[in-house]
Input
Amino acid sequence: MIYRFIILLIILCAALTACAAPERVTIGVLLPEGYRENFVQYARVDREDATIRELYVHPDTLEQVRAGRVLADGTIIVIEAYHAQIDDQGEPILDSEARFVKGIPIEKVHVIEKRPDWTAADFTSDTRTTGAGNWNFGSYQFDSNARFDEDLNACFHCHNATPETDFVYTYPLLLTFARTGEVQYFYCDIAGRIACEL
Ligand code: HEC
Output
């Protein structure tokens, strides 16, 4: 009888230990909840194809950047995009500062996240950031926050071109925002996602 009790106790302990063990649930890059409220917009990039992009970062990252540190593990940056409003002649409408006026959102929101403990399951792509870059990429639908189905290899291919700023294209804008608190405005006269010199 006592043996049965001990065996039961062992099974119970094992089960409890398994439950208590920290489970790593993150698969891939998640879209940070409420990023428009909880993150800070540091830059806006307008492009000649009448698109507007707004970039957000967590306040903790700004503190680190202000303190002169490199982008730490845990850094998350979100970029969302909009079409500019177009007038009857098909030209983008400009505001008093000669900037585009935000129209309807573009369906995907892109996220980049740095962490040291990614597992193979966290990647849907074969490509990785080069060198010591612990970055992973995610794409989400604008409205539902559900994953947007696109090939994430393209993200790595493009961002791998900028290792000198830790794979973050807008790092110079982030630095200036961290110093000045002014949302950085940048106009790029190339369409699509081809990088402009910052
Ligand atoms: C063709 C090149 C290209 C591809 C492909 C690309 N990006 Fe980017 N990405 C850029 C450029 C350039 C910027 C800077 C903003 C701008 O100029 O529009 C940027 C900016 C970003 C930013 C803001 C941080 C930063 O690097 O400045 C995030 C987040 C981001 N991209 C995520 C993604 C994700 C996720 C994917 C894939 C789903 C992706 N990107 C694919 C070129 C690319």
Q: What stands out?
A: The chain has a mean pLDDT of 89.
